[in-house]
Design brief:
The protein has a single domain, classed as Ferric Hydroxamate Uptake Protein, Chain A, domain 1. It has 5 helices and 20 strands. It has an 11-stranded antiparallel β-sheet, with no helix packed on it. Strands 1-6-7-4-5 form a 5-stranded mixed β-sheet. Strands 2-3 form a two-stranded antiparallel ribbon. A hairpin with a 2-residue loop joins strand 16 and strand 17.
Length: 456
Amino acid sequence: MRIARPCLLLCSVLPWLAATPARAGEQGHAHGHAHDHARELDEVVVTATPIRQAPDDITRPTEVLSGTGLDDSRAATLGESVGQLPGVQSSFFGAGVGRPVIRGLDGARVQVLGEGLAAMDASTVSVDHAVTIEPFLADQIEVLKGPATLLFGSGAVGGAVNVVDGRIHEHAFEGTRGRVELRGNDVADERAGAVRIDAGHGHLVLHADAYHRETGDYAIPGPAGRSADRHDHGHAGDHAGGHDHDEGVLPHSATRTRGGAIGASHATARGFAGIAVSRHESRYGVPGHSHDHGDDHHDHRALSPMNLSAAHDNGHDQGVAIDLRQTRIDAKAGLDDPLPGHETLRLRLGHARYAHTEFEDGIAGTHFHNEGHEGRIELVHAPLADWHGAWGLQASRRDFTAEGEEAFVPPSVTRDLGLFLLERRHWERLKLEMVHAMTASMSSRRPECRHDGSMP
């Protein structure tokens, strides 16, 4: 006797349906016990916006890396650390350079911030210039997408990436706490370590941190050069200049980064004030600048920043390397109920002296210098007719110079001034945010000085 397929299907489903209520009851009972022991996660608050809120409460697209998520994605560069987020990539000009790219926009269109202030480096001038903000010791990395990031400058139309390092504490605590982290990989023979210590007593909180990272040449599958380069040199096994040492590695991609900071803050129930001094140094190779030495075969072993000088003395091809350094001073203060009708006041001040030198085969070439000052004040007002918002003022000054044969950017002094107003209102199923910003920028070419101090 043939049994219709619908009957077979019904007979197979009925036993499962009969068992479903009992299973559902068992699962509900199990979930009930699980809820009794549920762990409450720490609240994540975005600090880059004047009104501090959770990412889900912000109208514009926002991504936040913190906790174990940040530990899993933390990398040697800021761009690589956030490169796995939706709509975010990292620029790559060697292992030492990685600037965030948001929705295809990069350079000056994406603002890189440290505790709400600009990095004040030269990373927007050229793609091979590194960002001086170190992600290794970050407490939180915030990625803001969209034009609302005009709150951080007229050029940040693509977005902003804010690194919260916690060097200036906003809240007091008692005792000592710290963190030690060691990392390594075999792709570039990376060896990295960082240590951080925070100590609080009464209203005083002290902070100290240090980090060091060193990598060799980046490992790649196969040769570094193109097949055309090998044919040009007439050696089937040669590449990227005709030398066998390039097989499996990216020449001149070694890096060395180190730095640290100390900070102190005074925090009470109503507000805080603090200051931090930091130093960042990095030396890294720039791939893609190999030189043809013809039949003069030197010992082209894989180089690292630690032996670049020795390699140059022995006649090795070092390619192009960049040695950068920055000393930075940051101050931050906050006050609750500062003025009638206002909830909070936040003040940030920053000063940085940045310089880097480009070396070609160990010989110093172009020198870049940047001295920056920046200040920002934010006031959050109390709700007014169901509108909650903030207004603020930001000012900056940058003195930039480039000296050398490849100095394509003239020396200049740039001054920026901006006033912004942010208002938002929430309905039951609708969130509305309005931003109004007025900016003024003035850039003037600074007269060049000869080495004797006279004007040309």
